[in-house]
Structure of C2H2 type zinc finger domain-containing protein:
Amino acid sequence: IDRMSIDIVSNPQIGGFQCRYPDCTAQPFQNLSLLNSHLSVYHSNRPHHCPVKGCPRSEGGKGFKRKNEMIRHGLVHDSPGYVCPFCSDSEHKYPRPDNLQRHVRVHHVDKDKDDPQLREVLAQRPEGPSRGRRR
């Protein structure tokens, strides 16, 4: 869909920018940039591609609708691998810390998110100048 003009989407009564796509239930967005990012879910364009050659999401591959999704995906290439400390087989290795945290929340409900073993694994950081942080 085309981006909507500001006069169509801004609504002072609700204090933000509301998506007017049919049947959309999203809460109003604080600014137009966030609304425009949201509107990308309604089209099939995937203009952002992983810079790693051979990746299925690189140029010519699937790509991403949003730039922040591409940046987050980059962690899978730079990750030290977050291995679940509670699984005995060491097969449960995740590229991002949030993936491991979700695994623990779902499969190890008896473990606390502040468990020292889990905190030790999550303290790992990718090597390099950015160390997985946004700039």
